[in-house]
Amino acid sequence: MNFPLRNRKILLIGLGLALLGLGYVLWNGIADRNRDVADLDANVPETSSSAFPAVTEKREFVTAMAPQPGQAPADSSPFYFVEVTSEAGIDFRHTDGSSGRRYVIEPMSAGLLIFDYDKDTFEDIYLLNGAPLPGCETEDIPRNRLYRNLGEWKFVDVTDAAGVGDLGYGLGVAAADVDNDGFEDVYVNNFGPNVFYRNNGDGTFSEAAAECGVRGGEQMGAGVCFLDADRDGWVDLYVGNYIDFSFDQHIARSINGIPSYPGPLDYQPIPDTFYRNLGNGKFQDGSETSGIGTLSGTCMGLVAGDFDNDGDDDIFVCNDVKENFLWINDGTGRFEERAVAGGVAYDAFGAPQASMGADSGDLDNDGLADIFMTSYQNETVTFYRNLGAFFEDATPTSGAGVSSYSYVTWGVIIADFDNDGFRDVFIACGHLDDNVELRDRTTSYWAKNILLKNLGNGKFRDVSERSGPGLQIRLSSRGAAAGDLDNDGDLDIVVLNSRMPATVLRNDTPTRNHWLQVLLEGRESNRSAIGARVEITAGDLRIWDEVRSGRGYQSDWGRRLHFGLGPRTMVDRLEVRWPSGNRDVLKNVPGDRLMYVVEGQAPVSD
Predict the structure, then answer these.
(1) Is 352 exposed, middle or buried (CB count within 10 Å of its CB: 0-12, 13-18, 19+)?
(2) CA distance 149 to 161
(3) How far apart, in Å, are the Cα atoms of 570 and each of 341, 385, 586?
(4) In which band, very low, low, confident or very high, does the pLDDT at 428 lie, cut at 50, 70 and 90?
(5) Residue 240: CB partners within 8 Å, gap ≥ 6?
(6) DSSP β-ladder status, 594-598 and 514-521
(7) Which residues contact 5 (CB under 8 A, 6 or more apart)?
(8) What span, in angstroms and rounded, lies between the C-alpha atoms of 304 and 297?
(9) pLDDT for residue 273
(10) Distance CA 539, CA 572 (A)
């Protein structure tokens, strides 16, 4: 297209000013990060980079500098995480089924699930795996693995006994009590037919996807979540789909002569799938009637939550290199897409991102659900701050994206890791291309994960380098999930790494802060209490959270709500707002404990 000379000059001047502005933001962000790290002024034990070998060397995790459980390290680090995978008995290793052909599906696997499948108060771990693709030769057949938590950092592989070792190409996973029998069931979103494991309540599961009507077809799956869209007491199912792909559609790509993976724009987008729970053990495809099936996208991660604060759950969908979706629920399970009007379709510059994963939580304690989204190299993560009527991209002003620009980011966890009353953010990093260093020295296939501390003033500080040896590991991470795996009152982290063993990070953060965990059980509402909102008041602290199923990058965790209380030892008031419309209120709840609340046991009286 030819522009007149004058218009070209104006365009060049405008472009120059825009680049200067962007440079100013990035320079100040980097300077702020350097000042923030210096301000920490902590004597954290130095971890030599040689402890984490180069790309071509055998990977071994180093935990020699870890303090004993309950023993604070001799420093003032804001967080302290230690890798304990092997000693915990987690021997899972991921495969993407690759053979050098670079199918688009390979780098997308996979997510993981933390949940208490046997209701023994210890949270268990379910890890998804890939499968051999055409051209891949392997003697070991990969499968998903379930590890039962025995307590005291001991896990045992119960995959065979439980019957959940699916051999499909796993991508996304979520759990919920679909039949309201008191035990959470598991849905796995695959490349190819999906799997639904019905929990039998005796430590075993039965595969029932075809019987329940949720098997799906040959789609390339993505994230998945359960929500009670019409608040009828039965959880419905949202199944994300990535692109229209089959092996005969494979496209070979290269960048600067170096083989690379194709991208989503090389293929056609497809609609996601929505299933309504009929309450009789079966689901019905409600994609068209709900509105979900009317638009095509490139779904990767997703998260449900009450983003407009009207009492029902909406759905945010990450679309890869396309505008995101924000499905707003009218309360009956019918949805209208409003991402553009809501301010979450694009970034602050009006551009679509390679949206990967998303989590939701109240990051500024203003009573509204914010969204934190991961993305691709040369794009930062995005912090969408909820302003009530719409969201704003608060990434530049909050410092949330300073550390992520050079890396591909995947899993994301919003959680209060030091129990100070403000939720922090964990970000899983790692490139798609294992040969990216051959064409780009600004990034790497293996990368350290990122931990952002919430400063409580609308800003974040990258404290990864000061957060213990667990944050110095360099791998190519995908899904990530959090849970209190040892029931000690702080949240631990599990990361699924592409082509490598998983990583279990024990939280040994030295803190005198207090906490409260809340586990809900619905009666009129769905048994998993998905969509329930818990608000607590402890002195001057007012915080809340919502029960979700499906979040981050194709993962699920957090049925047990976790609240950091800071120095406060007592919760003055705890209110539960159930999806049914019921409310329960408890007063003078001591901290530092797990609180069970059953719908209707403490009806509101004040």
Answers:
(1) middle
(2) 14
(3) 41, 29, 12
(4) very high
(5) 172, 189, 221, 222, 223, 224, 272, 299, 300, 301, 302, 317
(6) parallel
(7) none
(8) 17
(9) 98
(10) 7
CA 165 to mean position of chain CA atoms: 22
Task: Supply the DSSP symbol for 591.
Answer: S
Place of tokens 């009828």: 232
CB-based burial label for 20 (10 Å; 0-12, 13-18, 19+) = exposed
Tell me the chain's radius of gyration from C-alpha atoms: 23
Tokens of 414: 């919003």
For residue 325, give the amino acid letter: F
Instruction: For 145, list phi and psi in degrees, rounded to 5.
Output: -135, 140
DSSP assigned state of 310: S
SS3 550: coil
Helix residue spans in 248-378 (DSSP H) = 287-290, 339-342
Distance CA 249, CA 270 (A): 15
239, 194 Cβ separation under 8 angstroms: yes
DSSP 73: P
Cis peptide bond upstream of 110, omega within 30: yes
Cis amide bond preceding 161, omega within 30:
no
Q: What is the pTM of this model?
A: 0.88
Please give the torsion angle defined by the CA atoms of residues 82, 84, 85 and 87, in that order, rounded to the nearest 10 degrees: 170
Q: What is the pLDDT of residue 602?
A: 78
Q: How far apart are CA 254 and CA 160, in angstroms?
A: 41
More confident of the two residues 438 and 21: 438
- Whether the CB-CB separation of 451 and 471 falls below 8 Å is answered with yes
| DSSP letter assigned to residue 72 | P
The reported pLDDT for the residue numbered 385 is 98
Per-residue pLDDT, 71: 42
Q: How far is CA 239 from the centre of its chain?
A: 16
Mean pLDDT score, 337-361:
96
Reading the block at residue 178, the tokens are: 């679909």
Q: How far apart are CA 109 and CA 129, in angstroms?
A: 7
Pairing of strands 273-277, 283-285: antiparallel
% of the chain beyond a pLDDT of 90? 85
Report, as an integer, the average pLDDT of 315-321. 98
DSSP 164-212: ----SEEEEEEEE-TTSSSS-EEEEEEESS-EEEEE-SSS-EEE-HHHH
Calculate the average pLDDT of the chain. 89
pLDDT of residue 77: 61
pLDDT, tens digit, 9 for 90 and up, residues 199-225: 999 999 999 999 999 999 889 999 999
pLDDT value at residue 139: 81
* CB-based contacts of 329, cutoff 8 Å, min separation 6: 229, 312, 313, 314, 315, 335
- Looking at the DSSP bridge assignments, the partners of residue 220 are 191
